[in-house]
Amino acid sequence: MPTSSSRGGSRLLKRLPDEVAVFVRRGDQLLICHRVAEDYWHIIAGALEPGESHAEAAKRELREETGLVADPEPLGLTQRYALAEAMRPLYSNDAREVVVENFVVEAPAGWEPILNEEHDGYRWASLAVAADQMYWVETRETIAMLARMSGAVR
Fold first, then answer.
1. Calpha distance 98→90 (Å, rounded)
2. How far is CA 2 from the centre of its chain?
3. CATH for 16-150, among 3.40.50.280, 3.20.20.80, 3.90.79.10, 3.30.565.10?
4. Per-residue pLDDT tens over the stretch 23-36
5. d(CA 65, CA 73)
6. Any residues with CB less than 8 A from the CB of 7 and at least 6 apart, and which?
7. Any idea what the Cα angle at residue 90 is, between residues 84 and 93, rounded to 5°?
8. Residue ranges of the domains in the chain?
9. Which residues, 6+ apart, have CB-to-CB distance to 154 below 8 Å?
10. 8 Å CB contact between 83 and 98
11. Residue 133's closest CA among 22, 18, 35, 10?
12. What are phi and psi of 18, to 5 degrees?
């Protein structure tokens, strides 16, 4: 559960150190979105909310960020990354790493996302091109795994 702190009379909830990543596929293409605040290309991702399972968070993030209502399938790949010192104030005091559960979903033919305010653009890319565009190494590793699973050569 996130903890709260008081700052200037307002309560701030700390982020849970659990996240989901959702890889949206359409055939041999992968949806990549440009994140406004961070200025990089990424897949659909976000943190769990209190009381939410990874599967519930994946479904919610997918709907919130793209408008697609679907049940992403777990990839069976859990990743962890060390929490950067600058990010620690956003999390509980004992958080030292973030756990990411990865999911995949097939988008319907002809479907295009309706992006939320977190993104200012998107494109469909081959797995190889998508991997080259990713900022985070963990995301590139998961795309490589998707390529192996689909028999695509990277």
1. 12
2. 19
3. 3.90.79.10
4. 999 999 999 999 99
5. 17
6. none
7. 80
8. 16-150
9. 127, 128, 131, 144, 147
10. yes
11. 35
12. -125, 130
Structure confidence at residue 11 as a pLDDT band (50, 70, 90): very low
CB distance 124 to 33 below 8 Å: no
Query: What are 89-117's pLDDT values in tens digits?
Result: 888 778 888 889 999 999 999 999 999 99
Helix (H) or strand (E) holding 75: strand 73-82
**Rounded Cα gap, residues 140 and 124, in angstroms:** 16
Residue 7 tokens read as 């700052």
Q: Residue 154: which pLDDT band, with cuts at 50, 70 and 90?
A: very low
- In this structure, is the dihedral angle defined by the CA atoms of residues 57, 58, 64 and 70, taken in order, positive or negative? negative
Which amino acid is present at 9?
G
Residue 152: pLDDT band (50, 70, 90) is: low
How far is residue 110's CA from residue 153's CA, in Å, rounded to a whole number?
25
At 110, the amino acid letter reads G
Token duo for residue 40? 């990089």
d(CA 24, CA 124): 9
Tell me, what amino acid is at 3? T
